[in-house]
Amino acid sequence: MAAKKATAASAAKKDSTKKSAQLVVREDESPWTAAELKEIRDELEGEIRRLSEEVSSGETDLSEFLKEPIDGAGDDPADAGSKSFEREHELSLAASTRVGLQQNVHALERLEDGSYGRCESCGEPIGKARLQAYPRATLCLACKSKQERR
After folding, report:
1. pLDDT of residue 81
2. Residue of 54, 53, 57 lying closest to 65 (CA atoms)
3. What class does CATH assign to 22-149?
4. CA 126/CA 9 separation, integer angstroms
5. Phi first, then psi: what are they for 125, rounded to 5°?
6. Which residues in the chain land under pLDDT 50?
7. Does the model's pTM come out above 0.85?
8. Which one, of 43, 40, 13, lies nearest residue 25 by Cα?
9. Which of 112, 142, 148, 109 lies closest to 127 in space, CA to CA?
10. Taking a C-beta distance cutoff of 8 angstroms, is the pair 103, 48 a contact?
11. Whole-angstrom Cα distance, residue 42 to residue 38?
């Protein structure tokens, strides 16, 4: 039994090392090291845990918030408008948190399948420095600039 676990662990380590060797980098960068990839993976997994908890608690709070009527008896129009604004704000925050969670999950999936570090638009390397600063990046700087200009 212990031999099977050791063999499985060894195979997983070889697979991980193989994938890190496959990850693209720009010509002026060194290949990804196991320590760098572990740091990225740990950050992504930590963010996924944090955002999952935030989404879960936020949905509970939001469902209670949505049960309250916007125009309560005796409320003036300003109070109704304020409640409406708060509701929209909470919905916006919840949506933003879900998007962040999806981005982190997508980045972790790309890390697992070996496509991490490659721009999803042009296919060129994104760059280690950019990914170390923002591990969820899916576009190189040139493609991100084009996207933001639209």
Report:
1. 77
2. 57
3. mainly alpha
4. 30
5. -65, 140
6. 1-20
7. no
8. 40
9. 142
10. no
11. 6
